[in-house]
Amino acid sequence: MNNPTTVTELMAEAANALIRRDPHRLEELERISRGWMQTRDEELAQIILLQAMAEAADLLIDTSSEIESA
What is the DSSP letter of 61? Predict the structure, then answer.
């Protein structure tokens, strides 16, 4: 997997990780985004979003996605 370098790539990768029910990738994306040059507000928004997505992925781990082909 490639590391995203833009917010667009980060969001696309995060969506795919949630579809795959992959909380570990979402945690990795959180670590990646923490190293970006951005405002504190942007960083906090991304961190909260990725943490919520990781929690959702954990809760949905045994449920298949209707959009797995993404």
Answer: T
What is the C-alpha end-to-end distance of the chain, expressed in Å? 15
Q: Where are the alpha helices (DSSP H) in 1-70?
A: 7-19, 23-34, 40-59
**Domain segments of the chain as ranges:** 7-13+20-59
The predicted model scores a pTM of 0.88
At residue 69, the pLDDT reads 52
Question: Does 70 score more than 70 pLDDT?
Answer: no
Q: Name the E strands within the chain.
A: none
3-state secondary structure of 70: coil
| Run of H or E including 37 | none
Rounded to whole angstroms, the Cα distance separating 2 from 12 reads 12
